[in-house]
Amino acid sequence: MFDLSTLNLGIFFKEVTQNDHEDEVFVSTRVYFPYNDLEVDQGGESTLADPDRIVKVLAKRGAIKSADSLTAHDQRVLEILTKVPTFDPFLLLSQRREVEVERSISPSYFEITEKDWMLIRRPVLEKISVLVAKANSANNLDVYQAYLGQNEDKDDEGQRLMTGAVVDAIWQGEETDGSRGLIRSFRLDESQTKQFLFAWKGINYYEFQYERYKPLFYDFFRWLGSSDSMPKDREAMTESAMDRFKFRRDQSRSLIRTTHSTVMTIIKNYNLAFDELIEKDDPRPFQQFLREAPKNFLTVGLALGVLAHTANAWADVSDKKPRALRAMELEPFYDFIIAINGQDFQ
C-alpha cells in the first residue's frame, strides 16, 4: 500500500475520542508500530496517522531520517485512511481512484466478492437513479422551482440530463457537470459535491450492511432481553453479586438501545426524506438530509460498527446460540458492551 516499507508493517485502526469540554465524539485514525514485527503483541509505539507525527515516530526509531518526508503517494493514502470511518473494503474501493492517483496498490485492499459487489451496488444505484430522474431531469433544473411549479413550460428534451452518467458520477464520487448540478439543484454548496456524494453513498451502504447484520442483531437482542442474559450459575451467587449483574445487564440493554436507535434514526430519516421527494415532490427534507449527510455518515458508520462488534462478540461467547452463560463469561462481556457502547454517537 505504501512506498515506505515501514508503513506497510504498521497496524492501522480507528479510535473513538471525546472532547472533554464539548462532549463531541471524534473518530481518529492511529497507526501502531510493533517493536517486533513477528510478535506484534509484545509492545510498540502508536501515533495519530498524520504525516508529521508518523515521521517523528519513525525518525525516533531510526526507520527514516528526520529530514525525510513521505512521498506524495503515502501522504495521499494516509489522507484517505483518515477520511473513511471504517476500513471496510467497500469504502476503500469507493476511494480507489483517489488512492491510486500516483500509482496502483495491491487489489487485496479492495477485495470484495462479485456477489457482494452486486448486492451492494444494485440497491444504491436503483435509489440514486430514481432520485436523479425525479429531482434533476434537466441541466439547469432547480428542484425548488419544480416544487413551486415554475418549470412546467420548459423543453424537456433540450434540458434532459443523462441520468446514467449522473448515477455513474455519484457512484464514482466524481465532480461532473451533472453531479454538481444535482447538488446545486438542492441549493447546497456545489464546492462540497464530492463530500455530499461520498456521504450519501456511504449511508446507502450502511443501510445495506444493517440489513445484512439484522438476523444476528435480532438474535442478540432477543437473548439480551431474555432470562438467558443472567448467569446460569446464579443459584450459587450472593444477592449483592446478582444485583451487580442485573445493574450491568440493564445498563447494557439501555446502551444497546441507544446505539441501535442511532443507526435506525439516520436510516429512517434518509428514507423518509427520499419518499417525500419522490412521492410528494417536496425537496426540503432531502435537502436537509444532504446537508447533514457528511456528519451522519460518520455517525451511522461508527454506531453500526459498534453494534456489529458487540453482536459478533456475543456470537463468539455464546457460539451463536441463545443460551445462558456462566458468570465468569458474562462479567467481562457486559463490561465490554458498556465500554464500547457508552458514548454519545451524535
Provide structural commentary:
The protein has 14 helices and three strands. It is mainly alpha-helical. Helix 6 packs across helix 9 (163-172), helix 6 packs across helix 11 and helix 11 (193-224) crosses helix 12. Residues 148-162 have low confidence and may be disordered.
What is the secondary structure topology, with strand pairs?
Elements: H1 5-8, E1 11-18, E2 25-34, E3 44-48, H2 51-61, H3 72-83, H4 89-94, H5 96-99, H6 114-135, H7 143-147, H8 156-159, H9 163-172, H10 177-185, H11 193-224, H12 239-280, H13 284-318, H14 327-341
Antiparallel strand pairs: 1-2, 2-3
Helix pairs in contact: 6-9, 6-11, 11-12, 11-13, 12-13, 12-14, 13-14
Count of runs of 4 or more consecutive helical residues:
14
Order of helices and strands: HEEEHHHHHHHHHHHHH
Cα-based radius of gyration, to the nearest Å: 24 Å
Helical proportion, percent range: 55-70%
Low-pLDDT parts are 148-162
Q: What is the strand arrangement across the widest sheet?
A: 1-2-3
Cα shape: flat
Q: Report the structural category.
A: mainly alpha
What structural keywords apply?
346 residues, mainly alpha, 3-stranded antiparallel beta sheet, 3 strands, flat
Describe the structure concisely for a colleague.
The chain has 14 helices and 3 strands.
